[in-house]
Structure formats: C-alpha cells, structure tokens
Amino acid sequence: MPGPMFAGSLTALLTPFKDGHLDEPALQKFVQWQIDQGTKGVIPCGTTGESPTLSHEEDMRVTSLTVEVAAGKVPVIAGTGSNSTEEAISLSRHAKEAGADAILVVAPYYNKPTQEGLYQHFKAIHDAVDLPLVLYNIPGRSIVDISVATMARLAALPNIVGVKDATGDLKRPAETRLAIGPDFCQLTGEDPMVMPFLGAGGHGCISVTSNVAPKLCAELHEAWGKGDLETARQINDRLYPLHHALFAESSPGPVKYAASLLGLCQNELRLPLVTIEPKTEKLVYSAMVHAGLIN
Would 108 be classed as within a structural domain? Predict the structure, then answer.
C-alpha cells in the first residue's frame, strides 16, 4: 500500500431521528455540513450512529443516503459489523452496491470468539466482499481484543487496510506499526488520545467529537501534519473538556444533545439509550462553550 488509505479527522456519524423514524433530510444536511467543515471521511452506521437499534432496512438506507451526499468528495466507510458473520457479509455487500469506499467491521460482540474465530470472521467478510476493510477493535464494548498478532495475520489479506483502535492502549500504535508496517492505517477511536496516538505513529481519528466540532478536529490534524505542534496543542486544549463530556454517559447520548444545541438534529435516541440527565447537559453545555462552539 502506498501509504495509509485514510488519515486525518473522520467522523463517526450520529443518526438523526424524528418521532421515532430516520430523519433523512437532517442526515443528508448533516453529512454535507461535515464535508464543508473539512472532515476527511464519514462513517455511517457505527456505534455513534446507534446501529444496534437500526433495522437492516434503515441501516442500508443510512449508508445509501450518506454515499449520495458524499458523492466522492470524501470517502464513506460504512459500518457493517455484526456478531453474526453472515449478517456482516450481507451488510457489507449492500455497502459495496451502494457505492461505499470501504467498510468498518467491529469485532463480534457477545459471542466472545477466540483469536482464530476472529481471524476466520474477518477473513470470511474479506473474501465475500471486494472492498477495503478497516478492523474495529473496541474491547470495552465487544469484550474481545483483536491481538496484534491476529491483526498482522489479517493484514496479509489484500483488502484489510487498517484498524480503528479503541483499546485506549498507547503501546498499540507502535506495536502494530512494527508488526505490520507504516502503511497499515491506524485510526484511534478515542478522541482524548488523538495527539499521543499520532505521536506514537497513528494516522488519524474516527471521532465522536467531530460530530459537533468538525472544523476544529480537522484543523488539529492539519496542524499536526504541518509540524505546527503549538497550534495542535491549542486546539486540543479547547476540545479536551468536550472529549470527556461526550462520554459522561453512554454515547451517543451526550453528542446527540450537543448536536441539538447546534440545530443539527433532534435530541432523540432509541431505547435502550435515553436522553442524558440534566447534570450531564450542564457538563456538555459548558464544554461546548469552552470549545467556542456556542456562546
């Protein structure tokens, strides 16, 4: 691979709802706003997009609507993971048909597969769908951890191009780089760890915060890429309280509230998630003010 396929600030898109249904106009307007603000890629149907609560038809519709707006201006990395390999293959095939540029596939949750099971799961999806595949390693939600050795084994497959790393382990970027090489795309899924992750050899971030601060997130990565560390630090200082506030309760509850403050969507989630408590609203509001996103 001639360098990592994806880099910079990419957004794990929230999914707007209105009266219990997909808010399609809000979604498409939101994707366009992300592009206009400098986001380098968009990821529909991930954790932030409440994918576990979407029907298969809704999931596919969100991906199609996102591709329609992106229209080649930025890559669309469709979330297509499942704890069922066949279901993940089905969603991945639809992403291919819809025109997505790549797929993001989470480690199977609840099943607790072995490392061999993880390898066979991702290999089956890889073999069934001709799209670049980004592994999504998030042990805190899936319970299983894709080891560096398993990742290296998977990276030998031609279409497995990178990882979204949400382990919170800052040894991983260096370990992965040494095991696989510098072209294997490493994207953190932990907003507060962006700068140390980049410093350890990472390439970018699949961000929750960029749902509401896309321009600032993009500018941080641009400054880092130019070697302007002071500007990157200044932006990071503005965003840091927001990174934490957006996980004060189960995501995407806080970011949905933050987005509603900006008029981007309704403050509406699907059960079993509920809107955040008043004390968390105050925390998020204060962090938004600190970041300069609202007065």
Answer: yes
